[in-house]
Amino acid sequence: MSEAIIRDKAEYYARTGEQMDRFLALPPWSLRQKLALSCRILAAEGHESALAGQITARGERPGTYWMLSFGLGFDEARASNIVLVDDDLQLLEGDGMVNPSNRFHLWIYRHRPDVNAIIHTHPPYCSALSVTGQPLIPAHMDTAMFYEDCAFLAEWPGPPIGDEEGRIIHAALGDKRAILLAHHGQLVATSTMEEAAVLAVFIERAARMQVLAQSIGTIKPLDPGCAREAHDYRLKPRAVAATFHYFARRALKQDRDALE
Ligand SMILES: [Zn+2]
Question: What is the Å distance from ligand 1's center to 159 Cα?
Answer without folding.
Answer: 7
